[in-house]
Each structure stands twice: as structure tokens, then as C-alpha cells.
Write a structure and sequence with these properties.
mainly alpha, about 220 residues, 12 helices, Hypothetical protein af1432, globular
Length: about 220
Amino acid sequence: MARHGFALRDRPPVMLPSVFWVAMRHETLLRLLAHLEEMDGDLREHGERVCSYSVAIAREMDLPEQDVPCLEVAALLHDVGKLHVSRTILGKPARLNRAELHRIRAHPALGERILREQGFPETVCRSVRAHHENYGGMGYPDGLRGSRIPLFARILRVADAYDVMTAGRPYRGAVDPEKAVARLRGHAGRLFDPAVLACLPRILSDAAERGAVRVLPAAVVG
């Protein structure tokens, strides 16, 4: 399995209501992405990878194509709340203390607030707020569990965790893709929706077999 060299499956362009919405909010989306890149270039790159994984998982699950643009936007901006977290905390090369961890854990709710203020759809806002909820409960910010967690958020939870593990963090090195998948499987049903998680190795294998090159999602193509 290869983390890099990942691509979305080729699909014919379809003009649907959510696609029109993305086009109308294109400048707002790009402005927020620019702020993320200015804050920390890794945040934008992480969002793009999470977007690629999330869209591929959604298509593996046969979700309606008309839902994909909103999932793309939620994935690209899932960490937008970190614009309100200091660079010192984001780049700290050691484990965070309790106060710092509390601030980091506020970012899903902060992200939801930013997106609501900018007029993003309810689906996007709720998905960003819930992307750190755990399938078995005890996640944050609301302690939701199971099907009470929006499906897009359950997809983001898997894609985000996989990319964090395989890309590494300032305080923790990258994990081999196969080991990352194995570790995620160890938390199926507790942290991750088993049905969503089951799609991850399939999409990674598919990408590796095709030798695909990762591309930017349609939502950020001018």
C-alpha cells in the first residue's frame, strides 16, 4: 500500500445542486485554504490528502455522487478551526500539556463556527464539528456515538487518522501504511465505524495497483 500516489477515481462531470453551491462559494473556500496554508502549510496538504481518501471511501461505499462536493469541502476544511490555535501549539515537538490539549480539542467546534459564519451548508458544518467523535462514544466535542455521528464525519475520522499516522507529527514519526491500517483496525467499533474502515484498505490497494497520481479534488480546481 502506498500513502502517496493516491488519486480520485475518474468520474464524468455532473452539474447538481451541491456542485453549483461549491462554484458559488469557490472564492470563500480558496480564501480559507490560503489562510490554512499561511498558518501552516502542512494543514492544507493534510486537508487535500484527507479529501482524496474521503472521496474514494465515499465512492467505495456507493454514496450518491451529488453528495461528493460537500464531502470534499468538509474534508478540505476539517481543520479550519486550527486557525484559532497558536502556531506554538500546532508545531510543538513534544506531547501537549492539558491546557494545550484542551485548546486543540476545541478546533472542531471552532471550525463549525467559522463555516457557519461563512454560510457553508449544514452538512459541511456538522461534519466538521463531529470529525473527532468516536464511533463507540467518548469522542469530542459532543460525545456522539454510532449512527448519531454524521456519516461524512465518520468518513473523515478514518481518513484523518490514517493520514496523521502515515504523515507523522512534530512529536511522532510516520508509520508504515500497512501498520497504520492494522492499528486502525484494532480500534474498529470503538473509534471508527467498521463499515467505513473496511473501505480503506480496498481504496489503497486499488490506488497502488493503478499506480495513480494524487490529484487535487474538483472543489479546488479553478
